[in-house]
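Invent a record, attention on C-alpha cells:
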Amino acid sequence: MNHLGFDFDIELPYSYLAAFKNYPGLNDDLILKIANNFVNDSFRTHVCLYYDPRVIALACLELSQMFIHSDLPTFNNKPWYHYLNDENDGIEKRDID
C-alpha cells in the first residue's frame, strides 16, 4: 500500500479525553467513561475524517453529560467547553451539537 501512496494516519481523540480529566469539574469517571464509549462509537461513522480530534472529544463530553442528565461546570460565567478550548480554535456550542 505504501508504494501506491496510501498513507492514512489520523490523530485519535482519546488523548484529549485523558487530558480533560485533569481539568476541575471533569474528573467524574462516569462522564469520562461514557465519553470514551461515544468516541468508540464515533469510529463507525466518518466523523474522524471531517473533524479535529479535539472537537470530537468535546462533542463526546457534551453527549456524555446529556446522556446522564448532568451539567458540566461553568467557569467565569462561560460554558465548560470554553475552558477546555484554545482561544484560537473557535469552537462554539454549535460545533459540538
In short: The helical segments are 14-20, 29-42, 47-50, 53-67, 80-84, 93-96. DSSP finds six helices and no strands in the chain. The domain at 11-96 is CATH 1.10.472.10 (Cyclin A; domain 1). The mean pLDDT is 77.
